[in-house]
Amino acid sequence: MKPITQNIQDYLKEIYTLTDGGEAASTTALAARLGIAPASVTGMVQKLAGGTHPLVNYRKHQGVTLTPEGKRAALEVIRHHRLLETYLVTMLGYSWDNVHEEACRLEHFISEEFESRIAVALGNPIRDPHGELIPTPELEMPSDESLALSALRPPQKAVIVRVRADDSALLRHLESLGLVPGAKIQAVEYSLFDHNLRIQVDEKLPIVVGSAISDKIFVVCNPL
Amino acid sequence: MKPITQNIQDYLKEIYTLTDGGEAASTTALAARLGIAPASVTGMVQKLAGGTHPLVNYRKHQGVTLTPEGKRAALEVIRHHRLLETYLVTMLGYSWDNVHEEACRLEHFISEEFESRIAVALGNPIRDPHGELIPTPELEMPSDESLALSALRPPQKAVIVRVRADDSALLRHLESLGLVPGAKIQAVEYSLFDHNLRIQVDEKLPIVVGSAISDKIFVVCNPL
DNA sequence: AATAAAAATTAGGTGTGACTAAATTATAGT
DNA sequence: ACTATAATTTAGTCACACCTAATTTTTATT
Ligand SMILES: [Mn+2]
Ligand SMILES: [Mn+2]
Ligand SMILES: [Mn+2]
Ligand SMILES: [Mn+2]
């Protein structure tokens, strides 16, 4: 029962997101996400894969995946992160482009009591300010049937539920375009060549977005 | 400009409280407060006293005091701690005997923005839930003219402004006796021999407190 | 002033988590 | 199949902040 340090939590969190698509996470990808040298990742990953209750599965040159134990630990931190972001925006007036850093620090240090109290204060929310799903107290990740805005075709209509971005500048840009969770979208025109999509946001004048943006926005077509 | 780590912050905070009475803090006293070995303290203190901008003044066998730089850093952490305790109690429903640990962890990781936002949300409070003074945003410690309850003599009257205790069990005990900030006290009887003081709290039936308790409670005699 | 006790420091060592440089293994193009 | 490139691992270091054991310095007692 060795302790799960802040560092290890950050590793697990990144492994979780990198393996979300089903594939093992490569050393290099992890190193890039964590901002450290690949060699350092190899060393840490070997440690995490050892012992009696390994947090990750790892075979040389084959990449890393989470064990059930590791996944639980990752979801715990992700729940902290997303609840914190929600709390900072809703209760303390942070802007949505400014919460990530604060949440990423505090997520490692709040107690279960703190987690539970802010969850109650917020009414046990399911999504954070960016629409990311918040794992339940039992650490289940809710399922999400949204699709990328880039898959929308005229004349489909949809509602934004999620924006996948941590970057401040991008978030501010999206907000200025009205591309925030809850916004109503209608696809107006699609260009096969550059994958640009012309959309109408909340019945305003149409705007054109490239795939760098439309890949990061997720919508549901027939919301209840 | 080497970074002030969490560990260093805890050292500075303890040195601040130990040197509050004017005397230098001894290695042993610091070690006891921090729960580490005296030899470790010596090592750290030597480091803190070195470099171009030392955080402490230190001469072998003479104890430690804070430099102006070190004092600033200590007050910054103390402000964080006390604002956090106040926020946890006022906004999140923590009980006053349960906030210390959470605040002592988070104090090292909140940003200046977080500090400022909770201060505003609380209306820039001057005292934390135990009545401890909160350093100003400019890191000045307000002055406190309170005196120990143990110095009160019949038939003096006073109001509790501060309770000096981090220990949960003691705090719960004090609360059960009504000995909380704001309570009105009248000294009824004093025993020279065992220093017991019989007091009336908020016009209830008198109780007797020993000096272990009355030394930790601070009052003002003529509140405005 | 001598000496016993207490306080503080030095010496040597540990685990964590990073680094760089060098070596190895895998992948892709010809 | 061969080879160049890219990905990954190994080897060797380092800073941090702690530890125990041994030594030195201070202080208190007689
Ligand atoms: Mn985030
Ligand atoms: Mn983090
Ligand atoms: Mn406290
Ligand atoms: Mn602390």
Distance between the termini of chain A: 45 Å
Task: Return the average pLDDT of chain A rounded to an integer.
Answer: 95
CATH class of the domain at 147-222 in chain A: Mainly Beta
Bound heterogens, unique: manganese (II) ion
Instruction: Give the total of beta strands of chain A.
Output: 8
Order of helices and strands of chain A: HHHEEHHHEEHEEEHE
The appropriate CATH architecture of the domain at 147-222 in chain A is Roll
Rounded to an integer in angstroms, the radius of gyration calculated over CA atoms of chain A is: 19 Å
Order of strands side by side in the largest beta sheet of chain A?
3-8-4-5-6-7
In percent, how much strand structure appears in the residues of chain A?
15-25%
Largest interface, with Cβ-Cβ < 8 Å?
A: A-B, 19 and 19 residues
Task: Profile the largest sheet of chain A.
Answer: 6 strands, antiparallel
Helix content of chain A: 25-40%
User: What characteristic shape of chain A results from the CA principal axes?
Assistant: globular
CATH superfamily (homologous) name of the domain at 147-222 in chain A: Ferrous iron transport protein A (FeoA)
Under CATH, the topology of the domain at 147-222 in chain A is which? SH3 type barrels
Uncertain regions spanning at least 5 consecutive residues of chain A? none
Question: Total helix count of chain A?
Answer: 8
